[in-house]
Amino acid sequence: RLDKDTSGVLVMALNKRAHGRIGSQFEHRQTTKSYVARVAGIIQDDTGLIDLPLATDWNNKPRQRVDYDHGRASQTEWTVLEREADATRVRLHPLTGRTHQLRVHMKAIGHVILGDAFYADPDSMAAADRLQLHAAELGFTHPTSGEFMTFVAPTPF
After folding, report:
1. How far apart are the C-alpha atoms of 124 and 120, rounded to whole Å?
2. Handedness of CA 122, 95, 43, 136 (dihedral sign)
3. Who has the most CB within 10 Å: 10, 16, 95, 102?
4. Using an 8 Å Cβ cutoff, are 41 and 86 in contact?
5. pLDDT at residue 9 in the model
6. Residue 133: which of 87, 89, 73, 97 has the closest Cα?
7. How confident is the model over 83-134, as pLDDT tens digits?
8. Pick from 97, 78, 99: which is nearest to 89 by CA?
9. What does the pLDDT read at residue 104?
10. Is the pTM of this model over 0.90?
């Protein structure tokens, strides 16, 4: 499942049985997922882990927020790919799969995803003509053959 503004790899099951098997892999975190994003500002460290609980922001739905009291555990690993003049290109690995997880986690560490209509400030929104978030790689076990497969989509920005 991708946010409507996120580009990249999608998987579609051809029948109900395959859908169930693939869905189970997502539910049990047996898939591999990798995203590329361009974020505002320069991230100083080369890698990191964001471990912040997320919950629906009921006053601003469908937005999510960091919520230490009622949020669900959420973790994202990140690695810097490239530092630009006023932005950083990062690879993101969500260890959990919460709604808007990557968007909220990057905002929480002070580096909102460029072009993000939900979470970006006006300057970061104007810095890109689209959401700079792309599902670059998805791996899962084929529901019939049992073979682990990885699919890649080149990043368009």
Report:
1. 5
2. negative
3. 102
4. yes
5. 95
6. 89
7. 999 999 999 999 999 999 999 999 999 999 999 999 999 999 999 999 999 9
8. 78
9. 98
10. yes
Tokens of 112: 């909102």
Please write down the long-range contacts of 142-149, taking CB distance under 8 Å and 24 or more positions apart: 143/13, 143/17, 143/18, 143/21, 143/22, 144/18
Cβ burial, residue 145 (10 Å; 0-12/13-18/19+): exposed
Q: Which of 3, 5, 57, 67 is catalytic?
A: 3
**3 assigned to active site:** yes
